[in-house]
Amino acid sequence: MSSWIPDFSNSHRLQLGVTAVVSGCVAIGALISLQRARIWHEEHELKDSIPGLDQPHDIERINEFGGAVPEDARDITEAERSAALALRARLGDYDEGLILEQLARNRVFLTDDGLAKLRKAFVIVVGCGGVGSHATAALARSGCGKLRLIDFDQVTLSSLNRHSVATLADVGTPKVHCLQRRLEQITPWIHFDCRNELFSEAAATAQLAPWKDGQKPDYVIDAIDNIDSKVALLQYCHQKGIPVISSMGAGCKSDPTRIFIGDISASTDDPLSRSTRRRLRMLGVKEGIPVVFSSEKTGPGKAELQPLAEEEFQKGTVGELGVLPDFRVRILPVLGTMPAMFGLCVANHVMLEISGYPHDYLPSKSRDKMYEGVLAQLQGLEERVARHHGLDPLGLRIPLTADDVGYVIEEVYGGRSVVSGLASRLALTRWRKPEGAWIDQKTPGQNADRLDLSQLVCLTKDEMLRHEKLVLKEGKPLEDVYERNVIELVERRMLEESRFREQR
């Protein structure tokens, strides 16, 4: 050690080296200290700039440091950017390879030919709520080329439990524009035609008109929950030969295993389907329309249509509470998943139909031969009753057809005997003993029976024979033959039928 110190004091190079090392260490230490001081200063400055929990929050102060932009500004920017991209894509400025890659799974399933048909298709969706929005979204994601959306309503807070793409930012905006704006961000090349309108029979020709290039609609989707508009749409499409599929009621339903696609004549256990089918049959449409429906039956503990609260009645005329005159003002419980499944089933059907993919659903509930047999039985019954009361039954004609028989059996009495509830060996008969001039004999050689639909009841054949003997021939009062609940049920059904007849 003692020998090293003199060497250090006498060695100029060694002194310079040590000095350099020491200077470097001091410089590094100073630099690190300076960086730590700057970081500490910036951190505290940032913390001081953020309002405390007990202070008003000014989002602009936070944004100065790179935080989220104001919600309104961001939404406008995204909407403008998406709209601009969609416009360019519709004009052809979008890579075809990217489109095919996005539709790759549909392409291998439907084949190139099937996908090409879908991409050229023009589909009209009437009603863009829970069912219609999911059908629209599925069609757009699958590449359907042209979509016309028709709905008068706006997105509400209560819509968000079942709408396919709506967000809180969309509340208060028309449903059709909400769908277009959101779906353009997914498939910008799809062409949309939005009609913020109520579908009506008077406007049907314009609303279901061909696309601006002259292409007729390949399919129409009925996702309307108003019975008058629904019937008008289905009748129009049926008359004009426009392919259409209708969604029946998803409200109060909860069992996805009970959802079916089939002919409207095969739909059961659904009030909306029953009312629609009944009204259509009056207009001469009894089958040939595919529908999505649920066979789920109501039961204890299950959701039901809720009556309007009493305090709402106190506010004034109930009709004023609806969005439009004659629209329902009662609360329909809806589990958000069920409209989605109905809408996806509808879209699935449309895609298979347009692409030509094989599929097989529940067939039409054709019972024409049975109705013709029941009509013949009714003809014989009327002749026997006329003969019993001393009238000449020769040439007696009843003013009913097999379609009328089918309507009474299926739509008025649900395909069951009003007495026993049995559904086999059915027959129709007068409910009350005929009185007065019930046969028109003014025309020679022609006896016209004045029998009316509202006078008929559905029984089994055995029950009909007993009814003929006791009521129609012997004239016993109905109260002596049937229990009170049966008589009340018949009266309710006849009252319903009279109301429906007023709407014909």
TrEMBL record:
> Mind listing the GO biological process terms from this record?
cyclic threonylcarbamoyladenosine biosynthetic process
Q: Which Gene3D superfamilies match?
A: NAD(P)-binding Rossmann-like Domain
Subcellular localization:
Mitochondrion outer membrane
**What is its membrane topology?**
Multi-pass membrane protein
Q: Which InterPro entries does the record cross-reference, listed alphabetically?
A: ThiF/MoeB/HesA, ThiF_NAD_FAD-bd, Ubiquitin-activating_enz
Query: ATP-binding among the record's keywords?
Result: yes
Task: List the GO cellular component terms.
Answer: mitochondrial outer membrane
> Pfam families from the entry?
ThiF
Instruction: Give me the segments passing through the membrane.
Output: 14-34
Family, per entry: Belongs to the HesA/MoeB/ThiF family.
Summarizing the function annotation, the protein's role is:
Catalyzes the ATP-dependent dehydration of threonylcarbamoyladenosine at position 37 (t(6)A37) to form cyclic t(6)A37 (ct(6)A37) in tRNAs that read codons beginning with adenine.
The name this protein carries in UniProt is: THIF-type NAD/FAD binding fold domain-containing protein
